[in-house]
Design the sequence.
């Protein structure tokens, strides 16, 4: 049985609207960007400027620290930081989104009155996926 495209798009747009207006989303996004900057660049920058190769670099030379600060190292720095905090933050975000819909009674109302369950859940997953892609692209910028 095919899922109606209009219902899926409408459900995804409604979920994106809810996510855009929800402060917890912006806090999660801010924490993500802060941690990416902190672990990806700020620690390395201070290690390079002070010459101290402490806990974040563990004996790396200043030339290798400088190489990690250059734009060519962005993919490596991004991939090194994602497992540390990215997955955990997105798991928390997904829990917030699904749990808030349950706690606020939104899921119960939608499942009893609105479009089919699959359309609503697929629209929610579509919006969450779009948000995660947007956050990763913002991190690359």
Sequence:
């Amino acid at each position: 049985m095919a899922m109606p495209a209009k219902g899926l798009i409408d459900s995804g747009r409604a979920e994106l609207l809810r996510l855009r207006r929800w402060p917890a989303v912006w806090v999660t996004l801010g924490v993500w960007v802060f941690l990416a900057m902190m672990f990806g660049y700020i620690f390395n920058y201070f290690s390079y400027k002070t010459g101290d190769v402490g806990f974040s670099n563990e004996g790396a030379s200043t030339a290798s620290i400088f190489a990690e600060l250059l734009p060519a190292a962005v993919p490596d720095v991004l991939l090194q930081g994602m497992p540390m905090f990215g997955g955990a933050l997105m798991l928390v975000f997904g829990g917030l989104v699904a749990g808030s819909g349950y706690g606020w009674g939104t899921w119960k109302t939608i499942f009893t009155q609105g479009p089919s369950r699959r359309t609503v859940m697929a629209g929610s997953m579509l919006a969450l996926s779009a948000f995660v892609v947007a956050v990763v692209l913002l991190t690359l910028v």
